[in-house]
Fold each of these.
Amino acid sequence: MPQLNAVENIFLGRHPVRNRLGFVDWKEMRRAAEDLLAKLGISFDLDVPVGRLSVALQQMVAIAKALSYDSDILIMDEPTSTLTDEEIENLFDLIRTLKSVGVSIIYVSHRLNELKEIADRVTVLRDGQYIGTFGVDEVTIDEIIHMMVGRNIEDKYPRVRTEPGRELLRVEGLKSGRRVQNVSFSVRAGEILGIAGLVGAGRTETARAIVGADAKEAGTVYVHGREVKINSPVDAVNCGIGLIPEDRKYQGLVLEMSVKGNATLPILSDLCSRWGFIDRPGEIDEVERLVRTLDIRTPTIDRKVEDLSGGNQQKVVLAKWFAKRCDVLIFDEPTRGVDVGAKIEIYNLMNELTRQGKAIIMISSEMPEVIGMSDRIIVMHDGYVVGELTAEEATQEKILSLIVQGEKGEKDDER
């Protein structure tokens, strides 16, 4: 419940009481919540509404809530999709402790290396069908991938590089809150610009400031060489900029609506007659074209988006901007929570967009993904751009080195 704080969410419907009159024991509830979160190695202001927390902290609150039930069986569905390496290790330590006291854990993940680290057995599903169950030491990662997608994946990051064209977007001196400080960069037609950095570096905040989701305090945005005023996401869309947000379920989709309803949200005005009536046959034709183009796996375009897999939900988010024909697309964590096969499909869609002359900005917490799919990479730390690398020179070590240099610069400034 986004309007409630972490303590209230963890014990929602199970508030401890002090006496027979039913008064809630807020002190005990807060202490129990602090203990649960301490086991996960995190601390933050527990009075802040969960809706104002980062996606990573929201995930940790959800994990703490699951732990609070003291269940014999615990199901974790993509628990690490938004977590830092340190938070993941804290979670794994807790999972090992739970296993040692007899708790059974069903762990759902598309991060296959994690399974090798904490699982005892692996069950593989493909398109809703059971493929098999194996001891974790009986199969390799490549064998699991082959069973998941039904084919060999030769290239995990199939970037097809094109010659960059004219500049489509330029940002100069962008400032928005503490997380976006004097950010400047440009991206050209046919190019993928990656933004790398650790959690809290300001990558998502930069994207939100560009599209007007967060207020800008300073800075200028140019589209096709012309200065534009973007004060809201509507302004951004009208300027040809689309954002695929990191939290697709709550920021990119209306889950209760159909595939058709979501895909055509940005173009409803284009489908309306002068009298305000929607051209339903035209709407259906457009959505069916998008479903074919993006290979969205749905029984019907009237199926609710909440019933689709994570990969197909992400494709519906993409469909909105395919329909709107935006020139600049910002992908924030585009493959989070999707399987290996869906990742490749999303990468190929990005390749197709650049072939069409679109410009892409890709934000990802997975450094191999940023390196594998980008033509250029800017590195952010604590709201600042601390360096830029070409695809040829980029390595994880060089990216981390730039981040460390940024941290050192901060400490020198403090002195």
Amino acid sequence: MFGERLKLARKRAGLSLRGLAEAIDHAVTAQAIGRYERGEMLPGSEVAIRLARALEVPLSYLFSPSDIRLEGLEFRKTARTSAKDRARVEAAVLDHLDRYLQIEELLGVASHEWDRPEGAPYRIKTLEDAE
């Protein structure tokens, strides 16, 4: 729970483990942050607060459960997107999706059920096919 959220927030911020350690003035080492992310240990309250501030997320965000996963995320082959930028995009998508689902839960509404049309996905070869 904490580790997954910490890693997601760190990736969204575009920070490496060392970068995050520097952002919290080396209150703990990059290795310790890695252990937090893997769930091997939990930080003390002061370190958790520093991490949340450095990542610009509420402390409650780091401790809230999330079971959302992205599968099959693909980028264009010719895109010159770095691995770091791809990780940032994935983290941002997960964050937005998580917030959306939290709003649905708070409002007591459920996501609309969606059935894939028969024969989908359709191959689009021309502009007219897209209409």
Amino acid sequence: MSLSELMYLIKWDLKINRGLSWDSVRAMLLLLEFRSEQYVYRKLSTRPHTSTRLIWTVFRAFGVLFQWFLCNSNIPGPATIGRGLRLPHPQNIIIANQAEIGEFCTIYQNVSIAWTSP
């Protein structure tokens, strides 16, 4: 993922979630944190060094705390989510690392997107 792709995704996410309500502000902050985490993960996942794992672990730990305190949610960087994700009520959203969500998807509160192994 390049920096221009990151900015493109953020632009669409902010455009879809615009508004002045508290939920819109929390959704925008949550998506900004998720997209930055996604960018760092994509950049560091191609490098197998121990130092990059440490950087990712620290970045992810900060992201978990930020998402948890902001809206009790967990959207990890390895998840693949298309542009224009809409979060009308961003509280209690749990998404698995392996999740693949398409473009212009709407996810409401109290949703878990996970997988089970066979």
